[in-house]
Amino acid sequence: MEEILIALKEIKKDLDEQRQEIRATGINVTDKVSKNVNKMLEEKFLVWEKKYENLKKITENQEKRIYFLEKEARKRNIVFFGIEESEKSYENLENTVINWISQYLNIQLKHCDIQEVRRVGKKEERPRPIVVTFTTLGTKIKSWKRRNTLKDTYFYMKEDYPKYVLEKRKGLQEQLRIEREKGNTALLKYDKLIILPKTNTKRKLPTSPNSGTTSKVNETSQINKKNKIQKPGTPVIRSNSISEGVVKPGMLNFLVNKNTITASNHNPGKST
């Protein structure tokens, strides 16, 4: 009986050891599997991240191109507001626009000067705005410069901006007002707020014209004195300047007297 108990204890001991080994092996396998799975996921994540960055760059470039193309497409457009909506066809609308521009902007246009005209928005009681695409940018600029002639009328003109630009300009209106209240020169250019630097209004005082004239006259007189030409037949008058090599009369008398005294000392028999 004791032998059986001993054998059972040994069997139990062996089972416990095997169980521990199985657990340890399971933990190791789990760790290895987890590491392999994490490694695979990291590699796939890096690949996905790289693809995402490439797609992001492509999308940004496409957005920039669309932005540029839309800006260029609307560059020759003007939106006119208040023109009566009574046309029955595209030809009628085009003629209405040409006649209106001739009457209110005093610009004579032909059909070849207009690329496209169209009403925008839902039809309501008041007339919808008209988007006019001119054939050339010069014709558009010429028409745009005449917008001040509509000051005392219920007509008006606006630049043709995309919806997101209009929203951005609307959001910049408050900042534009604040900058102008500060005394700054600010304006909206497309979708940006531009603040012009303040110019220094202080001016330097001009120098006195009399002083300049006097100095010039003095310089001229000095030059004339130096460059004065002696007239023929008149005696030459030299200056008494030692720098010119001419001995002054006082010095000449001194030398003559000195020579006379020296000669009398050598010949005392002669009278001076």
Automatic annotation (TrEMBL):
Residues 1-28, 52-103 form a coiled coil. Residues 201-237 are annotated as: Disordered. Residues 207-224 have a biased composition (Polar residues). Keywords: Coiled coil. The lineage of its organism: Eukaryota, Metazoa, Ecdysozoa, Arthropoda, Hexapoda. This is Endonuclease-reverse transcriptase.
